[in-house]
Amino acid sequence: MKRIALAAAAGLLLAPLTACGGDAAGADGSTVTVTVGYQSKTINTVTAGTLLRSLGYFEKQLNSLGDGRTYKVDWQDYATGAPITAQMTAGKIDIGSMGDFPLLINAARGKQLNRPTHLVSVTGYNLRGGLNTIVTAPDSKLTSLKDLKGKKVSTSVGSAADGTLVRALQRAGIDPNDGIDKLNQQPAVGASALAAGSADALSQFVAWPGLLTYQGRAKALYDGAQLNLPTFHGVTAREDFAKNRPAVLEAFLKAQAEATDYLDTHPVAAAERVAKATGLPAEVVYLYNGAHGISTFDPAVKPQLVSALKQDVSVLKAAELTGDIDVDSFVDDHYVKKALGASYAKQLAAVPPAAASETWPKGAQETKAFASPAKLLAYVAAHPGGIRAAYVPDATTGTLWFADKALWVADGDKLVPFVAPATAQAYVFAHAGARVITYAEALERAA
């Protein structure tokens, strides 16, 4: 039954479509409409979507082309990458952004329908895999992946979150096709199922795990960064569009780079902008997109990400969602190289900043960074009611998490934070005398 369901899902993703072109020009060719598909609430794509749109950088770049044409941008917002792929291969969307697994399905479908697409840049990424998290209900007794055996787990088949679930279960010795009851659901449906008790756990991508945890509707069971395998989101473009309008695609990539610079130099303001546009709490946006957030942003197509993409193909093939995919022919970074010029090599070699503890004081337009989680806790304890949000990195994976939702370990005078039970327990096991304590106890010790 599971294989039938997966095959049906693949059929829906790969069903042929016909439609008119998305890159529309007026009768005299003087007006050109460029259609961009994005996911406003998948906040790792904001530099090619929500933030970029709010800043107007793409429109400014188009207006500066000076080719005598008038350009209009049609921004189309979707919940996942699948409908963007459907519209792209139907010729209705020119440029789209989505996660790594949907990018592979984008590549497979484009080739199948003779509407090839290409990965042209990267938006947000995490080199260890921290963009995906498995969460449970706040009162759940589940403490490890092994506890999921025989349980109902909600995820979105074909997504990076499903890839994390499959790999995590395999490492735990659980058959992902037989050891659990997998529920193929959209993120919002899965969140409702978790709240209703019809799902025991939820494996999802940004910003759902952080959002549900922030709202007190979930707690982390597994930090995707434990896989130590890169996860990312990127920009894909139709091959015919890129060849016919290379200047337009380069204008988009220049605008994306500008939006990335804005996010890097104004992380709080960027989080507020994205929050206003999406309805997500700014504190959640900042968890992922902040100065030391889970996501790192730059448009460069790093070799580590391409390598991870190749490893992802086997997961989709095993789920019968795609066949073989020629990743090398799908990746085309020459447009972004041209758009960024000399700065491309620098961005390609850039190393993500080290994780750090941060507080966001109420009413402040800047956050405060701390040399250690303990110093952050001391500051929070000294400012009761004055903190909008506090963030700490997992001591093992570096994944940022809300300080009041983290698992804390007391190790002598040290206070050590973790996202999920497994990393906390591994630390306790390796350090004699260390023990898990409550957040309240951690605050008291720090004070």
TrEMBL record:
Record field: transmembrane: none
Any Pfam family hit: NMT1
InterPro entries per record: Solute-binding_3/MltF_N, SsuA/THI5
Gene3D superfamilies: Periplasmic binding protein-like II
Domain (Solute-binding protein family 3/N-terminal) ranges: 45-266
Signal recorded as keyword: yes
Cleaved signal peptide residues: 1-21
Keyword vocabulary terms for this entry: Signal
PANTHER family: ABC TRANSPORTER SUBSTRATE-BINDING PROTEIN, ALIPHATIC SULFONATES-BINDING PROTEIN-RELATED
The family this protein is said to belong to: Belongs to the bacterial solute-binding protein SsuA/TauA family.
The protein, known as: PhnD/SsuA/transferrin family substrate-binding protein
